[in-house]
Amino acid sequence: MSSVITVTADDLALPLEQHVARTSAALDAYGHLIALASPDPADPGRRRLHTVRAALEADRMAIVPVDLPPLAAALLAEQLRQLAGTDLGPGVLAGAARLLSYYLYSGALLGSVSKLDRVPVTVGKHFKSLVPGRHFAVMAHPEPGLSEAGPDAVPPGPGFLTQLAVAGHGLDAGWVTGPLAAAWRTQHIREVPLPEGSARWWGTGRLVEFTAYIADIGILYQLVTSVRRDTCPWCGLEVIGDQCLFCSTRLGDRSDRGDRSSDRFSDRSDRTQQVAAREQPLRRPQQQRPPQYQPQHQRQEPRSRELPTTDRPQLEPHKR
Predict the structure, then answer these.
(1) Which of 9, 36, 167, 275 is most buried per CB count within 10 Å?
(2) C-beta pairs of 258-263 under 8 Å, 24+ apart in sequence
(3) How far apart are CA 238 and CA 89, in angstroms?
(4) How many CB atoms lie under 10 A from the CB of residue 108?
(5) Shortest CA distance to 227 belongs to which of 52, 79, 93?
């Protein structure tokens, strides 16, 4: 069984030794660990995860970068924890993080977009945000978008049944739970606490963050199992996608992999034979000299061999 975690500000406040000890205990308890991190390599949380993994020399820890708002990332981690209780292996579970992120519709209702840098903002929208009472509907995933919030101004939503998670602070959530939920045909509205990183991510502390997600574990399981699985040629884990997220091995072309993916030692034996062949001394092959060319008029006909004649005396005519 695998476990899924995200890095919070409380984790960064811990000393490195304590964070390493907690991660080591989680690996001993669950076997494999999947950590959702920011796609930015300079993010402090992602750098801490790489430091912990290097300190433990753990090849059973996968760091999966996801470009999602804080509420969507928390819901994705919740979905993966539910799937961890099924028969899915750790390699498939790590690849499912990228797959299931496409089925998340995440945005926020903001009172100001002056400090928003996650979505392109025009100069006109910047000036309108200075007017009191203006609210903006911002979509961050799957496609960025920005518009003024209104009863008839609703961004496009998912084409499948979802539940809507809402987390707000400082703004009225009536537009999210009313026109937006009705236009998106939400089955259920779930109020959750606002993640601690939402204010920094959206550039303001007055917001209502929302995410539409699939809550049915059966549908999530069908989505993951419908994808083709392969075996990593290095670590042997069953994975989905074009890369193993535990050992970072690219799977390459699937057509000519064949049975080599099931036996990771076959390539090593071939390389050993090649190295042994290289170490043997090379022998220069004997080259046969080609016959020299002679013009036809200079060619000499082979002489016929004359038999030696024995010298004997000639008989006289009357003695013959």
Answers:
(1) 36
(2) 260/233, 261/230, 261/231, 261/232, 261/233, 262/231
(3) 7
(4) 28
(5) 93
